[in-house]
Amino acid sequence: MLTDTLGRSYTLVLTPGHASDMTGAGLLLFRMPNTGHLIVNKGYDTDRLRASYTTAVRLR
Question: Which end of the chain is more exposed for a tag (fewer CB within 10 A), N or C?
Answer without folding.
Answer: C
